[in-house]
Amino acid sequence: MNENNFQTLKIEWRKLAKALNKYNQAYAYGNSLIPDDSYDSIKARLQEIEVIIGPQKSSPLQKIGHEVDRKAIVHTVPMLSLDHGYGNEWIATICKRVSNNEWIAEHKIDGIAIELRYINGKLSQAITRGDGKYGYDVTMHVQDIVPIIDKENLQVRGELYMTWKNFYSIQNLFATPRNAVAAKIMSKTNQNHIKIDFMAHELVNSNYETYAQSIQYIKSLKLQTMPTYICKNYNDIQQFFTDVQNLRNDLEYPIDGIVIKINDLSKWKQLGAHLTAPRYAFAIKFMPQTQHTEIKDIIMQVGKFGTITPVAILKPIEIQGSTISKATIHNLEELYKKNYQPKDIVQIAKAGDIIPYIQQIVSKNSTETVNIIKQCPVCKSIIEKRNSTWKCMAGWNCEAQKLQRMSHFVSKKAFDIKGLGEKILQDFIKQNWIKFPVDILNLDLLNDKQLHLRNGWQRKSVEKLQKSIMHARKRPLHNVIYGLCIENIGYDASQILAKNFDSLQHFVNSFLSENYICDIAKIGPIMVESIKNFLIKDMWIEKLLKIL
User: Fold this and answer.
1) Whose CB among 212, 351, 363, 388 lies 3.0–4.6 Å from 345's, allowing a Cys bridge?
2) H-only helix segments in 63-144
3) 454 φ, ψ (degrees, to nearest 5)
4) What is the pLDDT of residue 386?
5) Is 145 left (phi over 0), alpha (psi -120 to 50) or beta?
6) 264 within some domain
7) Residue tagged active-site, from 108, 184, 350, 391
8) Is 326 in the active site?
9) Which residues pair with 314 in a beta bridge?
């Protein structure tokens, strides 16, 4: 392989690894940002690239989950994830890989994995999976839903989940039951309105001969357990999978597949595990649920860094209880390649219960070809191709980018200025009250009468805005760095950077210094270049330094 091909693959690897780390982090805290099969495709492509360029030290393929950023508690036995695939083909692969075994099959509840530690029959700790080696303590959120047991010292693993009945009472607050569970256990206070349950599926360090015996023991302790079924061979597993798939909508809790485990626990020790998953247990997921619908229109969205993303506006359809009226198309390259057009009938998939996407064209009803876009749909500036995406390079001269960056500046993880939604920000921009984000921090200096003249603004609203701005000026450094909206610098990177500088002035002076060499762990050359470019081009940072 020549050097150019190697570098091309390395660039693609970095992009995919960054995306996978982002999705892993979100999933660790209960938020699925993309469909499961889309995630699996990215992971498979990353594996293909590493076969060619070799394993990478920082590869997300070598991690079980996302690193824990709260008080870490070590797992006495690593809490691994499961290798998984889809449907009967994956079942056949498993049975060929690990043959001649009796299996125990269970529902794969779509919840959050947890470990319960009992001392003398009382719950001592409840710990999340975390990164597999370390989890974090969520005891306060589960102590009321698990029983006191006979005077036993043991560790039990299972799933925290929410029944559909409990979810329907609060579904206006959360996208999925899993998101609701995550919200409860991530909260620093008791969220009593969020009702969750626990179902056990493993006894850690079991002394029993079979998995079925250990489950019976857990049941005897009055802990709720997964329904279990014995499967002798491929046909049994396939039949169980089909039955569960047909009955999934009748269950009281959400599932996204089944799990099979070898019943003989001595074989667990023989087979062991690879880096991230055991070789004696596997997940078999349902294929994404789909519906056919018509594309009504295709619009172009412009992101805060100018990335242009096509969005298909759809004739509304129902999938898994929610109405789908639009689906994001990955990028312009995909739009040109697939030639999606209004009037085309497409198959929409919604894996993971969250993000809809176009799986394929069912009926091509348009004979036209997608027009190649050469200008930004908002500001009409010339667009440029950067890697696999097209970008508007106008920056602050593009109204779409300006509004998105303003919204980022006031967001909760940044300056946390409440009451400034997009419509209000648009109004303030139109009034020429704010040209750059820093101007938002001076809105409290406006004449009260000016603010009162805005539609919907009462004195209480003005006072809240003024108070919020006062607090914003005292935000910690990591929130400030994140609020700057620097490309390639997310919230995690902002936290890392903040630990290495005393103040925003120190941060700015260091990166603008010709002699400064950044040797901060996890802050790579692309991120350093992005920071320097921002500080050189975005001169409003000087005004911000005077305010903070």
Assistant:
1) 363
2) 87-97, 139-142
3) -70, 145
4) 82
5) alpha
6) yes
7) 108
8) no
9) 295
